[in-house]
Amino acid sequence: MNFMKELIEKLLQGDITHEELQILREALNKSRNLRNFEGYLQREFDLNLALLDINLESAFSRLKLKTGKRDFKSRRRHLSPYLKYAAALLFFVALGLTLRLFLWQAEANERLVPKNESVLLELHDGRIDTIDVNQSKSMKSQNGILVARQEKDRITYENSDTKELSFNTIRVPYGKRFSVNLSDGTEVFLNSGSSLKYPVSFLDTGQRSVFVKGEAYFDVAPDASRPFIVRTDLTEVKVLGTRFNVSAYEEDDFIDVALVEGAVNLRPLSGAKKNTLTPMNPGQLARFGKLTGEISLVDVNTNLYTMWMQNRLVFRNQTFDDILRKLERHYNVDFENHNEKLGREEFNATFYRVGVDSVLNYFNKAHEIDFKIMNNKVIID
């Protein structure tokens, strides 16, 4: 199924080759693959595919003609809606057309224009450097020594002997993402509206400590003699070498740590569990409540907490207000919700590499939620 998932993602991105498309067509002839495919589409894409304003029965019929397989069907008497969506997708890709979601038309004639702000690098001496994510450059010290290299939306630091720590801070605005390769080889991926304070070069001994606000995914370079510490305003995560995601936005009522691989200890810096270590295993989510000071630990699908790195928005049982808050960060647009009851309702949705207009279109069509745009702000009454 992993190979099929890869082909589906290529299909939706428009990167699938003719040979891969044929493999996917053949795979869909097998009832077992059809069931797996149906489940995958239902979990990941069903809510987005509902946006496609197409005649699915007709599209599926045209797909059979296109593939030359009139008996292209499952053992079931009727195809499920999700498989019909998949068939329609295959048909349009086979014709070489671009899949696009219909753009939502606002009540007002204004067009929503996301704000475009720059990634900022605050150097240890207080200077501010604006990062152009479309360019690449070398970054040197005042003595002319190479410190790091910027390759578009990534900075990679050199490992150098140092006797004293000096910290830089990268600030990522709403609407952008950025990554930093630290001097020890640790990779950090920063989500929209996040910041990371880190040493230009770690010392040879002692802890490797960084400070994060917002959301970041860490792939920590192993080093048993130098534990890696991730600090937020209220928590601390201690690791030796592992992969995990930290979400610590100031406006949220909680701090989440999702462990993908390895082992970590979560330690609150305040509240009822102050300084109490909570061990975590892979596949677990630890949530620290800012108001209660308590930590809950549950088993989760950690992919749901890391898909933002693939530019995918995933909402599972989240309130509309929480969704709007994440949309603000992802697209750097402003929302104003006047409907308190709607704000408390929970929704499920997945959006993959689509613009904010397409997201609004989905909620308008699928849930009859009306929007209007005023002064470049989305208003919900």
Helix-strand layout with pairing:
Elements lengths: L1 H12 L4 H10 L3 H14 L1 H4 L6 H12 L13 H14 L24 E4 L5 E4 L4 E5 L5 E6 L2 E4 L9 E6 L5 E4 L5 E4 L3 E6 L8 E12 L8 E4 L3 E5 L3 E6 L5 E8 L2 E5 L9 E3 L3 E6 L5 E5 L3 H4 L5 E8 H12 L2 E4 L2 H5 L1 E7 L3 H12 L4 E3 L2 E4 L1
Parallel strand pairs: 5-7, 10-11, 20-23
Antiparallel strand pairs: 1-2, 1-6, 3-4, 4-5, 6-9, 7-8, 8-10, 9-10, 10-13, 11-12, 12-15, 13-14, 14-17, 15-16, 17-18, 19-21, 22-23
Give an account of the 3D structure:
The protein is α+β, with helices and mostly antiparallel strands. The chain has three domains: 2-94, no CATH class; 119-304, Sandwich (Jelly Rolls), CATH 2.60.120; 311-380, Phage tail protein beta-alpha-beta fold (3-Layer(bab) Sandwich), CATH 3.55.50. The protein contains ten helices and 23 strands. It has helices at 2-13, 18-27, 31-44, 46-49, 56-67, 81-94, 303-306, 320-331, 340-344, 356-367; strands at 119-122, 128-131, 136-140, 146-151, 154-157, 167-172, 178-181, 187-190, 194-199, 208-219, 228-231, 235-239, 243-248, 254-261, 264-268, 278-280, 284-289, 295-299, 312-319, 334-337, 346-352, 372-374, 377-380. It has an 18-stranded mixed sheet that branches. Strands 20-23-22 form a three-stranded mixed sheet. The chain has a two-stranded antiparallel sheet with strand order 19-21. Strand 7 and strand 8 (187-190) form a beta hairpin. Helix 1 (2-13) packs across helix 2 and helix 5 crosses helix 6. The chain is globular. Residues 169-265 form the FecR protein domain. Residues 312-380 form the Protein FecR C-terminal domain. It comes from Flagellimonas hymeniacidonis. The chain crosses the membrane at residues 82-104. InterPro entries: FecR (IPR006860), FecR_C (IPR032508), Ferrdict_sens_TM (IPR012373).
